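Our platform keeps sequence and structure together, in a single record for each protein. Such a record has a labelled line for the sequence and another for the backbone structure tokens. This encoding replaces a full spatial description with a residue-level series of whole-number codes. Below, we set out a record of this kind in full and without editing:
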Amino acid sequence: MPLRTMVLGLGRAGAGLHLPVLAKARDLRPRLFAPEPVIAFDRDPAERARAAGDTSLSVVDSLARARESLDPEHTVVHICTPPLARAEVVAELLRLGFRRLLLEKPLAAGPRDLARLVELVGRPGVQATVVAPWLASTLTDRLIALVEERPGLGALRQISVVQDKPRFQRTLATSGHPTAFDIEIPHALGVLLRLAGDAEVVGASCTDLDVDGRRLPRLGGAEVRLAHRDGVLADIRSDLTSPVRERRITLGFDGGTAVGHYPADAGDHYAQLRLTTPECPAGDREVFRDDALTAFMLRAYADFAGDDGPCPTDFARQARVVGLLTDAKNLAAPPDASGPRRELAGAR
């Protein structure tokens, strides 16, 4: 049976990303989606008012009212609220009977919320997945093939990720993400766990955002350094004060280097990959379409429509992402650290 949709949270993630991608996905695979309008809800009346003019939506003023319009057994709920207090939102949805949950990243803001969420989604009949477009990316698929097939490249030794973008206005206007670790870095952590297996955090740093005479602690940028259990070393850097956008991943093998560029924003769905080897030091650049969020959404709805639901391994990987983020936050600013800023912690 085609699935209905409810979007909970009409901020940047819900209204700016999920709704446009849902419209595209519904056009591409209409049999996955029921023809009725998407039900939309936000606790902020101003957000509801902004969405009310969209004729593809039916905006409601409470979750209870949404429940009156929907059959929970055949509804996917997009949880686009910030990670803070996510467990309370999920608990309320479960009380209303909803069982198919699509949660924005990161899954939770800390270990207590994470433990509660894991318990909630582990209940009988609950199906849950976490938005992870980079894991549905064509570029990631090609990187996985390089790692697993290694056509003359040898062993993978190092991974480096850069996730830079200017994020002043949204950071000043919202408070849903407590640190820079929670914004871009979860995308990359999921990919690193897929490429190189489990890891531990060996170093982390975090900076404040200083703009217009204001200082927002721990929201300027972040860096995480990882040691994977199979010996791969990795680092992720995210500068949210950068004047330019870049999403670059570099894989260092014994016999070559792969440099990939994920699409920098939603306006241009093309990725790039260059592979260099001693035999071909200049490398060959490939450019290919990579609409990862749409691909993720179609895959998620196909999983929800299937007998088994989304793969539990995918949810477990995103739970592990939260654990690594927690370790990084603790290293970058331990509870006993003095002052609002801890520039660097851990080993290089």
